[in-house]
Amino acid sequence: MIAGFGRFDQIVGRLLAANGCKATILDHNPGQIEMLRRFGFKIFYGDASRIELLQAARAARAKLLVVAIDERDTILEVVELARKRFPHLKILARAIDRSHAYELIRRGADGVQRETFGSALEMGMEALKLLGVRSYKARRAALTFKEHDEEALREMAFAENRDETVLIARSRQLAQQLEQLLQTDDQELTHEVDLAWDISALRQDRG
Amino acid sequence: MIAGFGRFDQIVGRLLAANGCKATILDHNPGQIEMLRRFGFKIFYGDASRIELLQAARAARAKLLVVAIDERDTILEVVELARKRFPHLKILARAIDRSHAYELIRRGADGVQRETFGSALEMGMEALKLLGVRSYKARRAALTFKEHDEEALREMAFAENRDETVLIARSRQLAQQLEQLLQTDDQELTHEVDLAWDISALRQDRG
Question: What pLDDT is stored for residue B4 in this prediction?
Fold first, then answer.
């Protein structure tokens, strides 16, 4: 189930469709209705922050809600409502920026994507490759960076002391940790393995 | 060398720094100068769309220019200038949307990242995982999607017939091809290999 269907949500919907998951779309005004229907999407018109629409679209029976609308406050409202009324539902939400991400995590989103973070990481990865880093090593570095940054995001979302200076100091500390982590990774890669793309598997191996 | 240092460019710069590449930053007004200098970045103040700044920052000796400024027209200007004056330079550029991406490709950018595309793909991948698709298979599906979409982008950037209707029709055709491609991939995955993360390697294997 996808709330919104702009440029962001369309990518999500198309990737799911290409893998055989036909999403239900909730939107005020989705363009290209005919094409969407032909691709097998079910469409519900209306405001996804209203409980009636979520009920009509059978949120109670859905597994997953993707909230990727292009409006900061609406995203917050939909996440909060869905979390309260459909506790079983997994919720992925689009975050406009870092502070929006904190707020979404606190309101109970299971996953959060900052809207330009993924593309920036992809670009960083491409840059590493153009500078001579091998492809899988660049991908691994990007995954390590992402994992680390997302752990930091989650930690800071629940930080008790929300004083700006404290948050910035902690953020710098985490950035330095990351640099050390990537350098350590680098040394361990003297006997390089192709499983390197799956960071979490590697971490389990180490432990 | 990175032109701009907002939320997008910072991720690129930090990923490069964490991998031992200390970028030169060109910006009107980069915040947190002290921290940036401490992290080892060289900074040049000014307008990256002026040849004098690029020369002062020694673009002639740089390998790579990342243009990730938050302004559509400035990005186009910097790419065009850099392409003309420093033909050896690899250029990666941030695209605001699809039509901006076409224009950047035509002006000679070596690589283009649409600013929300990567994050949307990440979210689609997370969604697939939450729906029960195994982690590496979800990653592989996202990579196939990305590769296919980027090929389509490049093709359409150079399409002779730039009529909107023709472009949309072609775009739909490409979307259907993708769906077929992913379904084929799925069948081939009966004996699943962990090398699956590297789509280009797999394609070579097939050929």
Answer: 84
